[in-house]
Structures are given as structure tokens and as C-alpha cells.
Amino acid sequence: MRGLFRARVTGNDGGMAVRPRAPTTVPANTTVPAITAGTENTAPQANTAPSATTVLGPPGLGHGAPGPPGPGPEHCALYSPGAMFSWPELQAMASDGLLTQLYQRGYLPPGVVASPQLRARAASLAVAPAIRQRVVAGRMTAAWIYGCAAEPDRLALLVDANRRISSLRSMRGCTFHEVRLGPLDVVSMGGLMVSSPLRTAVDVALHVEQERAVPALRALLARPELGVRLRLLRLAIDASPRLPYKRAALAKLAAIRPRPGDPAAAG
């Protein structure tokens, strides 16, 4: 990895800054090291990757809503385009097996298991920083973040009805949905706001077609750490004021039919 970069002092304020050399071919036997907590993002050091984003676990969950546990005390590095690695370089390393693409511009070292926190961080890279705190990843995007659905083609972003979304609609690669969000409907992980597991299950049942909704709902209900229970989900849907959506949602729940002993069957 030392052959990729050279550091030099270029900061106008006297600080250290790093400028990459022209991209070079990565040797086949090169391994990508993980960044650790406390590593300065100024000059390259031995066994560090300054362009990696470190996701520490377990992160705090926002607004008191239940959510999945963090990845543990170990530090997981998520690599994204930055001062040291360009996107073409990351793509080249992924082609050589040195990295694994998680979502769009987010990459993981081989062997690192994607967690909800890492998926949320990768998704956040596709959301402009200026609006990141104004939107909530929801529906099938949130189901994917929780590991219960396939990677989305477009991010489904929820915007509270009290906020204006007209300025957001021009953003590419995202679909915006104006909704009402309660204090327990949102958790924070990986630098992104995400709908809580229960709110995610309710939205999937109400707004996603049955072919995609039923497998995602099964997966959400099958994970005890998410805290979604079938009886609670039915009660939440019954409280929905939209009758047409409610009937379709209840039909999706009826198609799930949890097996005896399944955690989802517990009340």
C-alpha cells in the first residue's frame, strides 16, 4: 500500500495535508488494512488507511426507539472516495478482490460482515450532507439496512410532513415520501436517521407490493433483536387511518403465517 501514496506538507495553515499520487496499479498480493480509533487523518501511517471511515460499535440509538445491537467493540472500516483513494481506485481494488462493495461508493475489507451500522453509513454516502439530518431512510431501504431485504436500487427517504421537501426532489437516486414521524419512529445509526424496526415493518406492510413485502416482513419478524412482534405489528396497522392500505397490509400479514415457536409468533 506504501506504493500508492506520498504525503507532503501543503496546508496553508501550517498543518499537514495529504495529496495522492497519480493512480497506480495495485499489486495482486496487497491487503487493505483497517483504520483504528485515534488514527489521525493527516499523513499515512503504517497499517492505516486514511480514506477509511471508522464505524464504532455499538453506536447510540436515537429517540429511545429499539434497534439492532452494534457490531461489538471491534472497529470496522468502511472505505469511500476521499483524499487518499479515488472511486476508480476503490473500484479497481474491488475488482482485484482487495475490497468488497457494500453499497454504491462504500467498500469493506474482505471478511468484514456488513452490519446495520455499516449499511447505514454506506447509504449515508449517497445522501448529500446538507440534507442528511432532514431525511430518514425508510421502507425497503430501512429493511435492507436491518439486513432483511435486498439492496435498493433507489434510496427510499422519509421526510416529516412538517418539513418542506420541494428543494429535495431534484436529488438523484432517491425517492422522497412525505410522512408523519413520531418520537419513537426514528433511530440514528452510522450517521443516518433510519426508521425504527417497527415503523419499518408497518410502512413495508402498508406501502410495498406483496411480492417484496412478505419476504421482508418475515425477515423483520424473525430477528428477535429488532423487537418486532406480529401482534404488535397488527395493532400498529389497525391504528392506521387509511382503510384501503390497511386491508392490503393485513392480507400481507395473513400470508406470513409464522411457525410455532418462531419469535414472531409471540405476542
TrEMBL record:
Biased composition, class Polar residues, residue ranges: 38-54
Region (Disordered): 1-71
Low complexity bias spans: 19-37
The name this protein goes by in its record: Transcriptional regulator with AbiEi antitoxin domain of type IV toxin-antitoxin system
Organism field: Arthrobacter oryzae
